[in-house]
Amino acid sequence: MPIFHKLPAAPVASKKPVEDTRHGITRVDDYGWMRADNWQAMFKDPSILDPEIRKHLEAENAYMNVAMEDTRDLQKTLFAEMKGRIKEDDSSVPVKDGPFAYGTFFVTGGEQPRYFRIPRDADRMDESQRQLLLDGDKEAEGKAYFRLSGIDHTTDHSRGIWGYDDKGSEYYTLKVRDLATGEDLDDVIENSGGGGVWAPDGKSFFYTLQDENHRPSKIFHHILGQPQSSDRLVYEEKDPGFFMGVGGSLLDDFIYIDIHDHETSEYRLLSTSDLTAEPKLVFRRDPGTEYSMTEGGDVFYILTNADGAKDFKIMEAPVDNPGKENWREVVAHKPGTLILNHMAYARHLVWLQRRNGLPEIVIRDRVSGEEHAIAFDEEAYSLGLQGAAEYDTDVIRFTYSSMTTPSQLYDYDMATRERTLLKTQEVPSGHNPDDYVTRRVFAPAWDGETVPVTLLYRKDVALDGSAPCLLYGYGAYGITIPAGFNTNCLSLADRGFVYAIAHVRGGKDKGFDWYENGKMDKKTNTFKDFIAAADYLNQQKFTSYANIIAEGGSAGGMLMGAIANMAPEKFAGIIAAVPFVDVLNTMLDDTLPLTPPEWPEWGNPIHSKEEYDWIASYSPYDNVGAKPYPPVLALGGLTDPRVTYWEPAKWVARLREKTTGDAPILLKTNMDAGHGGASGRFQRLEEIAFEYAFAIKVAGKMPAA
């Protein structure tokens, strides 16, 4: 019996051909009209969306609802399972900072976090000593979408900056709260990038402003009590190809201005001893050279790939003259050992590195130079380095988990090497790690490389090719998908699925080379690696082509679009969340928020015919062909500034037009959210339950009626 049956006619998008000629090549886009001319304004006020576009998106949602109607009970069951694995009234272990320790907690049924502080050495579970600083549920009342950017306190702990986005468009409003009274001051900052950095005296702060094209192009200094219009412009980045952020040092001595794209960076420093001064350049941007800084008292520690250190090294330079001519090597470059980030404290230098595909934390005594590492023995695992909020400390914090081991939070004394387990993630509905298997296997790629694949499945699953599989991939920006604990995917594993993560090129899973060989002219390696992972899982009978549902989001959604065109017969279904599928059109539109900063990742098709040809060869929207496609579920967000709603909408229209098969092509647009989907913790679970229900339905594993 067909998986999808008795469906009404799918929406048919109008065709309004628009020609575009670049480098002597003319393309016709029949569905370009879905891009709203007023998209910048619409992100701030979705009600002004063109009625024709809204009508089409709503028709798609209605069709999707009919197609997924028989999964409603399954979605509710999945949601209940996932919710049952979450400790609803959970609280974090507060982080010590001066006289207080700061943390978050949730209440039963609550969607949003609540921020609190307690006396430094008080019991975090002693609610009588908790001071509530910010109630996310209260602030979110009456809003369809609401996301907090956190709260950052002054050095004297008297005030806090907090921010929120209530559209999903990532334009944040900042407010200042008196932490003693809980009242907000009159200061309001609109259209910020999400947070602020206090000056040491607590009377002013620095923030980034998003411009009309949604780029953080300016940094301002705001003095409390003054209107935003009078804020001083500290620095303006004129190159639209660079992102920009502002941060502060643990010692409160410097404000960092971090300017970067995907392969080049530049820092400017503002000494907090003179907030009116011009920021000083550290090392002028040099294409391909990256560096980041952390303060270590009288020196800066600088993590960089300068001078051929592809997997990065750590340098130091004097605080009063940190230019590149004064950099001195502290931690040498070791090919194959990728240093990911670094932190400095009064007596120790700490960094997180990836070696042999696995993370480890390394600690160096700043006086003796002695080093030691923190690592674990599982075949695949995830480590997170949280560090500390204070500079003069020997204690840092880190997290550990694996696909079968719930997250564990540790304090670690760098001097005594003593680990203290602070918290183990609770799974209220129960979890027995011994019921599951996690493995790291390697799939042969087309060119002799091997692609790491992390697997999770129940011990009792028959590995004879009959098991359904959800195969997840990303593969961009050097982002490594961790092999960490995920309570949600247990709902698939418990239904006999093999849950797999393909660590394809484009990430840094096997070092910096792994990233470089999955970008620009080598981008198709990402797609071939994912298909190689599917081939291996089929050959080794972990699953079979007829049972593999592929999933990826954002740049991973581009991966989904590409593999749909390249090997549709190898996948039973495809889930593409906020998919970057209209790559060529987007990279040709330099008004879009992320286009200029993305050119070093994908190529600049405006200026280069060669780079135009690269992108045109794989851009999923441009390569949809007359072939049978498997069932596809595409998900978008109306106010998404990263992957605009029209990308999945256009892609679905073209897939439906071109496919020679009868499998449904579905589009679900969240009309109240952006790139990250729903903002509440349980609302997000509802979205995951919907995606998993599609996978279960496509796999033919629907429960009996």
From TrEMBL:
One of the GO BP terms on file: proteolysis
Residue ranges of the TM segments: none
UniProt KW keywords: Hydrolase, Protease, Serine protease
Domain Peptidase S9A N-terminal intervals: 12-424
Residues annotated as domain Peptidase S9 prolyl oligopeptidase catalytic: 485-700
InterPro entries linked: AB_hydrolase_fold (IPR029058), Pept_S9_AS (IPR002471), Pept_S9A_N (IPR023302), Peptidase_S9_cat (IPR001375), Peptidase_S9A (IPR002470), Serine_Peptidase_S9A (IPR051543)
GO MF, any single term: serine-type endopeptidase activity
The keyword Hydrolase belongs to this UniProt entry's keyword annotation: yes
Coiled-coil intervals, chain numbering: none
Family: Belongs to the peptidase S9A family.
Alphabetized PANTHER family for the sequence: PROLYL ENDOPEPTIDASE-LIKE, PROTEASE FAMILY S9A OLIGOPEPTIDASE
Protein name from the UniProt record: S9 family peptidase
Annotated organism of origin: Ferirhizobium litorale
